[in-house]
Amino acid sequence: MQATEALSWVNPTRPTFLQRRRRHTRKSTDFLPYRVPASCSDRAEQRPRFRFAFAHRRNRNEAFPAATLMPARIFAFLNFKGGVGKTTNVVNLAAGLAYLRGKRVLVVDLDAQCNATYWLLRPSEFKPMHELRVDGRRKQTTWQIYRDALDQTHSFDARVSILRGVPRNENGTELVPLLHLLPASVDLLDIEFDVDSGVAAHRLRVALRQALEPLREDYDFIFLDCPPHLHFITQSAVVAADHLIVPFMPDYLSLSGFRVLARLLKTLRGGEPQAKIDAVIVTRFKKIGNAYGAAVAELKSLVEELQAVQMLPARCAVLEPSIRDDIRIGESASEHQPVFMHAPLCNAATDYFALIGAFLRHFPTP
To answer: For residue 245, what are the β-bridge partners?
Structure first.
């Protein structure tokens, strides 16, 4: 058979090999349920997305109508066990609420390790604070809040200290305009050692609440990224917060530690109007064997047990879905982006898309 005759037998409606290959190698951003600005990634292109999935939401960069403004609710993400995903949840939930749902969110980094700060700021942006100036005034970190409390001064200025529209790309373009950051510094390590009396300790515990109270009208959510301990800085977050969220890694040690954490938080309430644990987020979940699933089931049983003895409020729940362990989370931190911008189709991004909806259903807003 001649070549020309063979070509006539090809079905013109059937995709060719190259067409089928392209279909399986589309860029991950082609499937996003929203439009990614071209500045946020060299993979992003200005092409139509499946925007109907989020058609009900407001424009993510649009200001709130005056009639719907409500004081922000403050959420403290805490666990005295390290490596359970406190910063991961703070950054990705905050960025998702701001970018996908048009919420005004402030992230307050209280950890001397500065993980949330390093995640949302590029190295070129995170200069020593004495070099960063706004209107001739030195930029400040959360350290200044506690330094003022110990020295009984009033140097902290939120207008100067808050970094707006983070993260940014290499050109300085704001990727999430409604996400703001109050950064931390390693100087927070010194605060715990400078407390020399019970009066100073009390001033530390209420300092954060007093500093954040004037900011409530400017945001819908304020997320506190707490250090992995229950010393004075974390206690100040408990005093300032309206709700406590515990990131939980599904293993035996975390399960035993959760009971201890609930008991310790109950002893911290002594007279101050403080929040209780209202939600648990399971992180680093692996679908390998039955160990992780069994740990989550035991966690839910433990929550019901602690609710029965009034150590947890009745509204406390384990939010679904669990966040699966994903290497893309670590990559997104090094790229200074939330995971759904860095790798929109990865397991963690898919889980956070669903978790944002679960979060808003559990903590509804107008």
So the answer is: 77, 279
First to last CA, the chain: 71
Cα 132 from Cα 3, distance rounded (Å)? 71
316: left (phi over 0), alpha (psi -120 to 50) or beta: beta
CA separation (Å) from 12 to 7, 15, 38?
A: 10, 8, 35
What residues have CB less than 8 Å from 354, skipping those under 6 apart?
Answer: 320, 321
- Tens of pLDDT along 320-342? 999 999 999 999 999 999 999 99
Q: pLDDT tens digits, residue range 65-103?
A: 433 568 999 999 999 888 999 999 999 999 999 999 999
**Parallel, antiparallel, or unpaired: how do β-strands 163-164 and 243-248 relate?**
unpaired
Instruction: Find the helix packing angle between 86-101 and 327-334, rounded to 10°.
Output: 70
pLDDT in tens, 183-196: 999 999 989 888 87
How far apart (Å, rounded) are the C-alpha atoms in residues 187 and 220? 29
Alpha carbon distance 278, 284 (integer Å): 20
String of DSSP letters for 139-200: ---HHHHHHHHHHT-----HHHHPEES-SB-TT--BSSTTEEEE---TTHHHHGGG--SHHH
Given a contact cutoff of 8 angstroms between Cβ atoms, the answer to whether 359 and 321 are in contact is no
Residue at token pair 């989370």? 329
Among 190, 180, 25, 191, residue whose Cα is nearest residue 116 = 180
CA dist 161 and 125 (Å) reads 13
Q: What is the Cα–Cα distance from 269 to 310, expressed in whole angstroms?
A: 14
Tell whether omega for the bond before 183 is within 30 degrees of 0, i.e. cis: no
**Angstrom distance (rounded) from CA 195 to CA 344:** 45
Amino acid at 196: D
- Could you identify the residue written with the tokens 């200025």? 157
Regarding predicted confidence, which is higher, 364 or 1?
A: 364
3-class DSSP assignment, residue 221: strand
Query: What span, in angstroms and rounded, lies between the C-alpha atoms of 33 and 150?
Result: 48
| Mean pLDDT of the residues in the chain | 82
Q: How far apart are CA 90 and CA 146, in angstroms?
A: 22
